Amino acid sequence: MEFEGCNCFRQRLVLSTLSGKRVKIRNIRSKDDNPGLRDFEASFIRLLDKVTNGTRIEINQTGTVLFYQPGLLYGGSVEHECNVQRSIGYYLEALLMLAPFMKTPLRAVLKGVTNDPTDPSVDLLKVTAIPLMKKFGIDGDGLEIKVLKRGMAPAGGGEVLFTCPVRRSMKPVHLTEPGKIKRIRGTAFSVRVSPQMANRIVDSARSILNKFIPDIYIYTDHMKGASSGKSPGFGLTLVAETVNGTFLGAEVVSTPQGQGDPVLPEDLGRNCAKLLLEEVYRGGCVDSTNQSLSLLYMTLGQQDVSKTLLGPLSPYTVEFLRHIRDFFQIMFKIEQQKPGEDEQKGGEKVLMTCVGAGYSNINKTIK
Amino acid sequence: MEKKEQKRHQHKHSGPKADKKNRKKEQGTEPERDERKRNPRAFSVQSAVRMAKTFHRTQDIKTKKHHIPLVDRTPLEPPPVVVVVMGPPKVGKSTLIRCLIKNYTRQKLSDICGPVTIVSGKKRRLTFIECNNDINSMIDLAKVADLVLMLIDASFGFEMETFEFLNICQVHGFPRVMGVLTHLDTFKNNKTLSKTKKRLKHRFWTEVYQGAKLFYLSGMVYGEYQTQEVKNLGRFISVMKFRPLVWRTSHPYVVADRMEDLTDPEDIRLNPKCDRTVSLYGYLRGTFLKNKCQVHIPGVGDFSVADVSFLPDPCPLPEVIKKRALNVKERLLYAPMAGVGGLVYDKDAVYIDMPSGHGSQQQEVRPTTELVQSLIGTQATLDAKMAASKVSLFTGTAALTPEEVQENEMAPVPEHPEMTSKIDNENTFGFLLKHLFDVLCINRALRWKEDLAQKATEAYLRHQLAAPNLRKLVYGTVAEKEEDDSNDEEELGGLFKVNRPEKSKKVRADAMDCSRFQPDNSHDWDQEEVRSSIRDCFVTGKWEEDKDAATLLKEDEELYGDFEDLETGQVHKAKTGNKDQAEEEAPQVKLDDDEVQKNKRLEKKRRLKERFDAQYDDGDATYFDDLKEEMQKQAELNRQEFEDVDDEIRVQYEGFRPGMYVRVEIPALPCEFVTNFDPHYPIILGGLGPSEGNVGYLQMRLKKHRWHNRILKTRDPLILSLGWRRFQTIPLYYIEDHNGRHRLLKYTPEHMHCGATIWGPITPQGTGFLAVQTVGGIKASFRIAATGVVLDLDKSVTIVKKLKLIGYPYKIFKNTSFIQGMFNTVLEVAKFEGASIRTVSGIKGQIKKALRTPPGAFRATFEDRLLMSDIVFLRSWYPASVPQLYNPVTSLLMPVGQKETWAGMRTLGQLKHDLGIRNKPNQDSLYKPVVRQVRHFNPLHIPKELQKALPFKNKPKQMQAKGKTPRDLQRPAVVREPHEKKVAALLDALSSVYAYKNKKARAEQHAKHKEFLKQKEKQEAERQKRMKEERKKTYRAMGQKEKKKLKSSLKGASKDN
């Protein structure tokens, strides 16, 4: 399959690895002043090479053409130095998609930036993606994301442990009822700044959320010494849990040192709370960052009907849907659900229905 | 003939037996009492242990019967059942198919050629396929057969093909197998007939399962089997049930019953060997087939499908389910390859059958031929037709020609869609129509009159304002529109073009890859009304009617309304005041609400029942039941989800579902497929799952078939049937050592499983395979060489081969030696530093360091001193590489009549045999007379110092031979005189007498002494006895004295007190 441009780079490589179809991407930033693959993309390819066996990668001189012939997903113990241009979340999102289909359970140690403003952070994925994966039958003690060291944006120095068991097939899911939010939890973290920052964030965030629900608890996490990375910063991750086990998350991180205006912790807390409210307004059974993950698992399920209620589709998800059609020939039935006149449950929802591809983990060994 | 009068039976009239009978006769009218009650002793518990054991056993048997529940994915309208008729040649396969077809459809088919599909009943269709006597066909058909009719010539018995076919079936998932014995009329003797039947039946049972159905077709009447027997067989076939098989339920497949070459005749004229585009037709089976997927055609190869489309069913089931049997019109027959259904295939032409005779027959064939007829009837090409065609959207409107449509497409898109009044322009109108088409198609009942423009605009606006159709947004071609905008290129001086980064497209193509969804800032969460828009998302908000705690409580109250508290005697009444009030307020509404009330009551009842069920029925619901129920629910959902969607759209969501009659277009097929087409050989399109089209290393567990008479050699090419495929590959056999090492084997073990690694197509683990050495020709022996299962897939190999490196010591110090001959360079040694080595005599050692000269020599230490004659070796493991041979068996491409002669790569042995090469034996391996030289041992030399330190007796001097006595010391022999002799004799005699006397005296003395000792012992015993008594007396006296003393002292003490 051939593509143009570096847009949806991860999606293409991940889907190619899962479907076994080779991919050629041309014109990667060919008109740019700095053409070719960036360091973080190269680092991502290296990570894919580490978790697979028999992958063939060809990149031309300028880095504007990439040929990727996937191997088999191997897993095992992997340690990767992620490029600091993007946070670990960038790499982890792809690993989340691949991890259940490995030969041996994955145990990846990723080093780099744990939180930055562009990508979903490790904390957010920990609180939203992991419960989502459990719904697809990936459970057991093996499934875990652990922040060993925290490293903030420009310099990094963080360390994250991700372990995931392997599964032969995915369970079909019917996530049509998000349920009502029963509690809000969160983590306010600060590294290499005053520990008081975290408390200030918590207070401001609570001031907004308390109007909706009293069951709020925001942990403060101040990491010191070796586990605090190389750059200062602080941030807040909030997650709302519903009675049906849906997790909606939002996060805000302070601007990296030396890049733009510094933010006040109070503003940050308030912004994050508003973001969470926005996320609640969007609603659905899966929050906006994990839409593509849930859609992928639905696609790779057995040949049964799966349903998931989502909030409005993000542009990233729309691209992902197109790629799923290209790689797996699976189209989703997309039904819009308009909110009722009298109920006040946020915006429009989208019910995604599909028949799984009947995918089974061909990498897992049987004895 | 005289017949002996037999004595009649005498009934007893008395005695215990007669009494018993009488009693029985009397009680006969009474109902028989329960065995358990009548004879309780027989059913009492004899042993608790035994009881427990029997209980466990029954439970075990019960659980063993469970299968893992699977989601029921059988389609509502299933595809025809594939019935494969198999057997050795001249056994009556074609005759049986003919008879069965006649039985079902009352039609005669002269030539059975390709699959024949018939409607056999109200809910069942059958596809008959005859399997010819070729192992390729047998393998292919075993993979698609639902039912196998295994014909056996009773006059001959089982033939090798039958056993081979059964083994093939076993590997690829066992279809239903029914045996049919023919040629039973050749037996003249009834006894031999029944004996043969019994023998064959039991042999068949051991192969299939105990009690497998075996049919007997007793004889032929006018070249056909007896009607009644065929009818019975047909009845059995039409009621048979089938179990889903794993491979088939996870892969789509089509047994092609029609083939058409779509290649441009001009291309063929220019190059007769050009690749062909072919469309294959058939019922889709297995599971959903996706468009543009990969398929494998066994015997041809892997291809990607260009296009799939579904056609109206050529052999449909009756539309209305009737109570009675099918009528003649509904008993359809469809066999395009055999010439029924309008087409007859010849080698270089296609004949169209135009039935002219029977009117009724023509009617029957009608639906099947319609499509073909219309295809044939077309005179103009498609383009010409398209050009001529006019689209009229609605009745009464002017038809649009293609030119117009194109014109409209090119018309500029209006910037603002505000054109409510100015719709007189025809172009705009066309444009609108284009956009509205899908909206309006659904809503055909719409009134479409004068205010058409008005309505159209309104709808269009609504369409634009509301959220865009998401499906179109995601999957449609919305994104391409912007590209055309940035096409204006400037030229600089007519020479250079200004190459500007195209904004819209390129930016999108190189956009940031980030999954975060930035919110639009339309919501200001500081405002109260915005905040209240999500109020109900929280538990603190308003709940739905059926989940609200208050309503639920109220319902409970209604259900369990009135109750009396027994302790206090208080009577609680359900609150009805509320309801009464409501009734008072709206008495009229109540009448209308009767229906609602009734529904409510029903709902309440249902919920109550559910609760009751949950409380009482769930007690014995096991995990298994829960799982089964879950699967049931899923199956129901699968069925309902897309039920009411139009088929055209449905295939986009689900893919083509099994049971559809599909047309699959495959480009780039080799021309031999068409030119050498033989309808007697099955064409199967096996769908491949994701990444099953790739090639990699497969690890498999393999066992040589016990009926195959030779073991298999590593690196000998073998033909495997795995998944849909048949291919030749080179396996390497290995066995797993206790430490997980995969050690290469030269040959497969005789009766044991071993591992095998091949380079082949990626196939899911757990898939079974079988191996044959050749597919060409006919052999008397059993052809299936091995069977097994895929264990693991990988892109690298783990097999290692034992390698011993040998070296010789050339200098020996105490425990250190210099070894040479093992390596060639210093670098090689450096790689093996620290490796353990060993001598043949068992002395262990270690490689220490490389020596400078000679190159490859090294220093090694051992646990003991080596000898120069020792051989040192290093045991190592060398990774073996699997040859990357994956050679699909292309038997379908062979010329007609030679299809079973496909021969791939030859084995080394075959090559040598064919080329007449004989191996020269290694000279070292030949036996020669053993010549052993006598070994000379050097004398033992002990240093003087050591000699001094040795103890005297070990001193080597002592051990030295004495040497000769000198002459002067040698003594002469003594010779006696006769007198001296006499004296000596006398002295001898005297001394012997003396000795005798002495001996006698000593014996006497000994006896006396013994006597004395005895006496003495006796006396001693006497004395001891006496002494003992004396002592006893004394002790008693002493004791008494003591006692007295104690008593007296006690007394004295008490007195003192």
Automatic annotation (TrEMBL), chain A:
Q: What does this protein do?
A: As part of the small subunit (SSU) processome, it plays a role in 40S-ribosomal-subunit biogenesis in the early pre-rRNA processing steps at sites A0, A1 and A2 that are required for proper maturation of the 18S RNA. Activates BMS1 by promoting GDP/GTP exchange. Does not have cyclase activity.
Alphabetical list of InterPro entries matching this protein? RNA3'-term_phos_cycl_insert, RNA3'_phos_cyclase_dom, RNA3'_phos_cyclase_dom_sf, RNA3'_term_phos_cyc, RNA3'_term_phos_cyc_type_2, RNA3'_term_phos_cycl-like_CS, RNA3'P_cycl/enolpyr_Trfase_a/b, RPTC_insert
Species name: Cyprinus carpio carpio
Please name the Pfam families in this protein's record.
RTC (PF01137), RTC_insert (PF05189)
Q: Which family does it belong to?
A: Belongs to the RNA 3'-terminal cyclase family. Type 2 subfamily.
Name of the molecule in the record: RNA 3'-terminal phosphate cyclase-like protein
Q: Does the keyword Nucleotide-binding apply?
A: no
Where is it mainly found? Answer: nucleus
Q: Where is the RNA 3'-terminal phosphate cyclase insert domain?
A: 176-280
Q: GO terms for biological process?
A: endonucleolytic cleavage of tricistronic rRNA transcript (SSU-rRNA, 5.8S rRNA, LSU-rRNA); ribosomal small subunit biogenesis
Its cellular-component GO annotations read: nucleolus
User: Which key words tag this protein in UniProt?
Assistant: Nucleus, Ribosome biogenesis
Q: What Gene Ontology molecular-function terms does this entry list? A: RNA endonuclease activity
Record's subunit section? Part of the small subunit (SSU) processome, composed of more than 70 proteins and the RNA chaperone small nucleolar RNA (snoRNA) U3. Interacts with BMS1.
Query: Where does the record say this protein resides?
Result: Nucleus, Nucleolus
Give start and end of each RNA 3'-terminal phosphate cyclase domain: 2-334
In which domain of life is the source organism classified? Answer: Eukaryota
Species classification: Eukaryota, Metazoa, Chordata, Craniata, Vertebrata
From TrEMBL, chain B:
What this protein is called in its record is BMS1 ribosome biogenesis factor
Q: Which family does it belong to?
A: Belongs to the TRAFAC class translation factor GTPase superfamily. Bms1-like GTPase family. BMS1 subfamily.
Q: Which reaction does it catalyse?
A: GTP + H2O = GDP + phosphate + H(+)
Where the record annotates domain Bms1-type G, the positions are: 78-243
Q: Where is the composition biased (Basic residues)?
A: 1-24
**Region Disordered: which residues?**
1-45, 570-591, 949-971, 1005-1057
Q: Which UniProt keywords apply?
A: ATP-binding, GTP-binding, Hydrolase, Nucleotide-binding, Nucleus, Phosphoprotein, Ribosome biogenesis
Upper lineage is: Eukaryota, Metazoa, Chordata, Craniata, Vertebrata
Q: Which residues form a coiled coil?
A: none
Residue spans of biased composition, Basic and acidic residues class: 25-37, 1005-1032
SUPFAM superfamilies, from UniProt? P-loop containing nucleoside triphosphate hydrolases
For the keyword Magnesium, the answer is no
- One GO CC term on file: 90S preribosome
Question: Per its record, what are the GO molecular function terms?
Answer: ATP binding; GTP binding; GTPase activity; U3 snoRNA binding
What compartments host this protein?
Nucleus, Nucleolus
Gene Ontology terms: biological process: endonucleolytic cleavage of tricistronic rRNA transcript (SSU-rRNA, 5.8S rRNA, LSU-rRNA); maturation of SSU-rRNA from tricistronic rRNA transcript (SSU-rRNA, 5.8S rRNA, LSU-rRNA)
Chain ranges passing through the membrane: none
